[in-house]
């Protein structure tokens, strides 16, 4: 399926399956209102899927990405063709270094010292008692001599993210029409997220929030020490509990029953340890779509903070860049409402000779600015490794 992918396609590999969407049957149009683009998104997607079915599409599926900011447009289409197959099986010899082959320049946004100042601003807001948590993010912008090879970047990400969710979404400003097969100035969102926001299959709902993390270590003894430290950390357990409580609260109106473990477990990627809770539920109504559930959850405190509205406003004030699709969600929804939506983290936006990486850290009472900076540095490793750049 990786060999089938070409720039402009939709690609999502999960532990359960691999999906590739090719061509554009229709584009989900922007809503009339300007305040909240997410409010009517499920109904607009449902209408587009019904129209595609009536027009003879054999298997209409809406695929794409939803931004962090509810006032910005989503990037969702119905492809002309969708192929679904087994999970990826990748040969490690297929990895190639991208950035060893040509020069590049890198610019942190903001600079590390300014980022730590932003964390301290967040801590001051928490100290007032109005905000419990805020996620403060930063970016790395790379300019390259040669055009970035998105296909190889995606392959490298998939190789090192076999238990997670590897994705690519076309962000081209002007989508090609059926007559115009090529578009100019291709942009692609690409990443390897460890976190499922929510999935729906029939009456079954599954969510897997992650919050609280530690960087991995190459030393096995030190790596296990960090894992245990995370599992015993009052600060991280509190941060995780805030997210789990919000997920339960958001899903409760849709569910007949819900199973939530009393305490989190540990999951690991090549770069990070995370606290994880697997939440399962049974829907009251079969027609509830995966996208409707995802929007009810978005954004979780894991990527925004809590309370959501106050944390979001603080993010706009502190962060010196537009998150765009970072900390939004990527996924799919079919005509039955089944689908899965992934939290858009460990990701980058690629445009010809530039690539911008994103990473954030959850700030709560007791957080330290230098530790949060180090956490974002560790989270950048997923993309940097795929680019062939060593720490």
UniProtKB/TrEMBL annotation:
Reactions mediated catalytically: chorismate = isochorismate
- The answer to whether UniProt assigns keyword Isomerase to this entry is yes
Q: Does the keyword Isomerase apply?
A: yes
Kindly state which keywords UniProt assigns to this record, in alphabetical order.
Answer: Isomerase
Q: Where is the Chorismate-utilising enzyme C-terminal domain?
A: 112-379
What EC number(s) are associated with this protein in UniProt? Answer: 5.4.4.2
Biological process GO terms, please?
Answer: salicylic acid biosynthetic process
Q: Which GO terms describe its molecular function?
A: isochorismate synthase activity
The family annotation for this protein states: Belongs to the isochorismate synthase family.
Q: Which NCBIfam families does the record match to this protein?
A: isochor_syn, PRK06923.1
Q: Spell out the protein name for this chain.
A: isochorismate synthase
Q: What species does this protein belong to?
A: Oceanobacillus profundus
